[in-house]
Predict the structure of Pyridoxal-phosphate-dependent aminotransferase family protein.
Amino acid sequence: MGYTDLNAPLRTIMTPGPVEVDPRVLRAMTTPILGQFDPRFLELMNETMDLLKYVFQTENKWAFPVDGTSRAGLEAVLCSVIEPGDKVLIPIFGRFGYLLQEIASRCGAEVCTVEKEWGQIFEPEEVINEIKKVNPKLVVIVHGETSTGRLQPLEEIGRFCRENDVLIAVDAVATLAGVDVRTDEWWLDAVIAGTQKSIGVPSGMAPLTYNDRIEKILLARKKVERGLSGGSSNNSRRIQSNYLDLSQIQDYWGPDHLNHHTEATTMLYGLREGLRIIKEEGLEARLKRHQLHEKALVDGLEAMGVELYGDKAHKMTNVTCIKVPEGIKDEAIRGTLINDFGVEIATTFGPLKGQILRIGSMGYSCRKENILKVLGALEAALIKYGAKVNRGEALQTALRVYENSSEPVLI
Amino acid sequence: MGYTDLNAPLRTIMTPGPVEVDPRVLRAMTTPILGQFDPRFLELMNETMDLLKYVFQTENKWAFPVDGTSRAGLEAVLCSVIEPGDKVLIPIFGRFGYLLQEIASRCGAEVCTVEKEWGQIFEPEEVINEIKKVNPKLVVIVHGETSTGRLQPLEEIGRFCRENDVLIAVDAVATLAGVDVRTDEWWLDAVIAGTQKSIGVPSGMAPLTYNDRIEKILLARKKVERGLSGGSSNNSRRIQSNYLDLSQIQDYWGPDHLNHHTEATTMLYGLREGLRIIKEEGLEARLKRHQLHEKALVDGLEAMGVELYGDKAHKMTNVTCIKVPEGIKDEAIRGTLINDFGVEIATTFGPLKGQILRIGSMGYSCRKENILKVLGALEAALIKYGAKVNRGEALQTALRVYENSSEPVLI
């Protein structure tokens, strides 16, 4: 009948999110509440915006979190930009492309898709040719497709969109702060991220940024709520969501702080601390760290004799997919890892379910001890279920990667 | 250029939300992350659902939080229930009624409103007569209108709706866990709350509950996403939001745990702890505590000679509105309170802005020391700006209320 103290086992979380959170972030989240219009809280909001611009590598005026999980951020951008009947092109190369299609169609878009076999990415010209054919108002595309572990090159597509007055919005939920995401240099009009992946903050916020090409649409669709000071307004082009209406949310984050929602105080504390940690580490150093640990993981897996899945040239740095050996159940391996070793890795979705396992190495989870732990535990699980592996090679190989690193590996 | 450690002044937050959070809740939020499908995390989700049913006083199958602030919960219910052209009746007696109107109209409803002068509530027959006239599919109404501090009686309206096959959804964002909210006994089909008010948890989640009359609509409108196992489906009655689609969210909270979003781990830890505290205190004792502190506050204010605003018979227990004395600026009083005493109280919206100040006594903020502090600080501020007050009476009166309480006042 009673509910016990909150006890949670300490897990080594090597999934593509949510991942472990730096204890500093959790500690920052114990800071007492401030009112949403408290002068100090407004300063913290402004600092968070500045830090987000650094991580998004952008000079955009707007960068703030939406109070919801990643797909709230995706929907905020899509429903704020898309008007009924707008043509939207969505290149799909995994599950999260389908999600974009789903959201865009619920916004009333005329959605055109082009699909690639799972495990591949699009050559930029393929997307560009499709843009020429379809002539959409907006292209929406996933950067890091965690369902397959693939990374889509964006710069050429972004430049083509800009030169041809097409908008492009990018789902960088899994990549931002773990893989290079150059909002401005790649000509991206809107980029959406999540807190629970490479940023290393608990799930529940969706940081995003957008430029003045997007803002122009927001301003044209703006509708002021009744009951606030300053009167209301009508707008036949109004955004279909109130909660995810970026024209209102930017007024809340802007200098007027016009009441919209009540900012999620404690999550904002956590996000600010997570971003501050990124700034202290340095974005470039952080991306290099993700690359180094990826190399230790991948070389270790290959030394073990495990087969990697997907087009290796376009692999996400922070997600590694392996094929489940013939005759073994993915859930058996996952079960041994979590129940005996306290290590969580992930299965996947749709057509690949049962065929691959996914290992994340994101944010605070991307540490030497975690890479070594997942390699050791995976080897034991594979041996237990009768897979043929090169015993003892994985850890030795990974250790050598760390020893040969030009810089000391502290974490 | 550097960003400092997170420093936030310790405030006494006597607004209608967000309010102070019990240190136990903040401590629970430092628990390390669990994966969203970790067996232990699924247990925590189930326990949270059970605890929510206790607080909502319901036997409903469904009670869970939406990952967003309160208005995300309101929009989740409205957009999941309302189909384009549906007739929706919204009785309005303050700012948050306008918000319901705003959200419902963005869902494509044909919205009918009936308005009451701010500071009043509706007699149940007034709403019932309007229902008879309009014959809506759905009535949406605020329970505790924080913009004016008024509490709308709901039972008669709820019963009439049930007997006449009309649905009723209630915004109990400000009331749940601080004021009596009887979901089942009052015949309410859906009730939406917020974490940052009387529940005493940081902003960022919107707990809600609904019954099988609502679920029937959700199931009829359900559309499965592509890219998940089990194939996709089409549905011309599909819900316009993906993120706030309750038919998908209930599948995520249900026994199948079908992937939708990534549950906001740390917020869930906080919500579970906040609800556990309510269960330990006992809902009835908690409501009585709110009443006692309200009496100390109100009697103290009246002894001071401050004029209360609004229909006293229908005052919210946890929000007290006072008229700003002639010739004094509301922001001057608020400024002295926060800058000199560290006490935050609130102004309000729309037509009442500048005329009243609002004092909250919600959740963990609803404590003896806080009531006494706000009374003392307010008296000093009013004297400073030249208002005529009965010096020294407020605190003596409030102290007597506590001394005369039949039970010892521990907090």
